[in-house]
Amino acid sequence: MDRILIDDLRVMTVIGALPHEREMAQPIRIDLSIGVDLHEAGRSDELADTVHYGLVCERISQMARESKDVLLERLAGKVADVVLEFDLVEEVEVTLTKLRPPIPEEVSSTAVRLVRSRKEAAAPPLVSHRAIVALGSNLGDRMGYLRFAVGELGNVTSMSQVFETEPVGGPDGQGAYLNMVVEVQTTLDPFAFLRRCQRIEANALRQRLVHWGPRTLDVDLLFYDDMSIDSEALKVPHPRIFERRFVLAPLSEVAPEFCPPGWDDSLPPMAVLPRGPLHEPSDAALEAN
Q1: Long-range pairs of 259-267 with CB within 8 A, sequence gap ≥ 24
Q2: What's this model's pTM, rounded to 2 decimal places?
Q3: Catalytic (active site) residue 98
Q4: Which of 69, 107, 222, 283 sees the fewest Cβ atoms within 10 Å?
Q5: Which ranges of the chain have pLDDT less than 70?
Q6: Annotated catalytic residue: which of 68, 98, 119, 235?
Q7: Residue 273, strand partner residues
Q8: Helix ranges, the chain (H)
Q9: What's the pLDDT score for residue 9?
Q10: What are the structural domains of the chain?
């Protein structure tokens, strides 16, 4: 698991069992190793995709200053609970050090170290959402681009077979599309998930030069749970879904409940041909043969 490290956070607090320890605050040191998936932040360079360690320090410090615990173990557990309240955090290792231990021997410090996971803590579990995503490509190694998108989307739990279709709209002379639909379980909110889709397109060298023109990769969010979102940045359900046979055909294999009744009979006919599962040979391999 990826880690965020916070070292040597110093806080003054009342901690200890002896009478003089209950009367005056003393310094403690807090060291954290936070387990979190940093893949998305590494791609996006956006604060929303990671854990704001400045806020972590502020909230821990405020809690510790107000606490008057007897045991380091107790305070360390409370520190872990605060960290696990942050979204995306799956695990935290806390080392809590008493810098002035009241021991009549030569010792520089005493400490406790504990590890807590989200499952063990009082923090609410991360909520998983169901995202339905359409993928399409009509440039370059089309099957390879679809595989790339599936690998980058995260926890793909279901996928349709790949369909080959003639382009709809846009300039003349485009090549045929490969289309498919996948289901993804994600803890991202819909706007963060949209940013992930856009980054996948960018990493596939998608260029938006001509409206409805040829492209290496389309990654379109069709549905997110049962939400309806109508904003300038995101519209869910995706507009024009219900008039596109090349979307509804693969959608009917993954999430048929989202297809309107009788869609197969009501839509104009067009060539939407099953190409096969995603592990079929790529265009480059077929050309080589």
Answers
A1: 267/243
A2: 0.61
A3: yes
A4: 107
A5: 122-125, 169-173, 206-213, 268-273, 279-289
A6: 98
A7: 164
A8: 39-44, 53-66, 72-84, 142-153, 190-203, 245-254, 263-266, 283-288
A9: 97
A10: 3-117 (3.30.1130.10), 129-288 (3.30.70.560)
